[in-house]
Amino acid sequence: MARFMNKLRTINSTVICELKQKLSCTVEEGVKLSEVSQWKVGGRAAVIVAPESMEQFIQLRQYIYQHQLPYLVIGNTTNLLFTDENIDAIFIHIGENFSNVQIKDDKIIAESGVWVPRLARIAMTAGLSGLEHTCGIPGTLGGLIVMNGGSQRKGIGSSIESVTTLDERGKIKSYSRNQCDFGYRKSVFQTKREIIVQAALRLNTTRNKNAIRREMIDILRSRNKKFPRKMAQCGSVFVSNPAMYKKYGAPGKVIEDCGLKGYQWGGAQISTTHANFIVNNGTAKATDILQLIEQARTIVKEKTGYEMQVETSFVNMSGKVLKI
Length: 324
Known about the structure:
Blueprint: H1 2-7, H2 13-22, E1 26-32, E2 44-50, H3 54-67, E3 71-74, E4 80-82, E5 87-93, E6 101-104, E7 107-111, H4 116-125, H5 141-147, E8 160-166, E9 172-176, H6 177-180, E10 195-202, H7 209-226, H8 242-247, H9 251-257, E11 264-265, E12 268-270, E13 278-280, H10 286-304, E14 313-315, E15 321-323
Parallel strand pairs: 2-5, 3-5, 4-14
Antiparallel strand pairs: 1-2, 6-7, 7-10, 8-9, 8-10, 11-12, 12-13, 14-15
């Protein structure tokens, strides 16, 4: 641990001590990212801070801004691939400690750290429809909104009424659904240095609770059959391109048609269950996963003329999130 800390250029022992003194939330240093990552890969995080209240969140944002420190926001780490090197940044973990949910009539107001399957179950129990397609997505609400994620070619954006963020100076900002600029797997938050802290969702009250439950069970049963649920993976790697889908099919089908299903590099493998998943067989490194991504993208481009967009982002040594 000491060797790791000595190598840090920015997030040093002074910064970590100040974070612990100023904030009453969890502050962990030198965390193994392989124990945090859904892909089970990565070096160490300099420090991970988990705010438990808006006040702590604002204090943390202000401290980072005042000292101009590198930072990275993580939830359940789906769609993130961490470098094998140590990462010199403050990780802001938005998870269970920041996941309060309130229901009022047909509206749900939820903090961004709520686990999406839990939110879908809360909506179902309240007889609210609209989140069924999210019931099997293993991420947090904030990350889902950033990606406008969903399943069955749906996105969470259709249920959003408003989104609340914190900017770099700790100022609270609010966005209506139109201002979020939702599109297929995109939103305005992908280009803003703001952190989603809360969202209001407007749902449908006209559907029978049992019908909502049955649909969710069907979705989960289908996902369990199609996806490699028991292996370390990060969900779908490539975004479906409507034009490619119409001509050749979904990314998983196209990758399989190119003969890459089951293809392995180091400890990483294109899943034998679903070719749009890359799994860690136990010894994978980030470089192995990157190699498979590049291999699949290159061969699909040669065979179809389409270059697949990667849903996953890469986190480098400085904590910067980069498109692959």
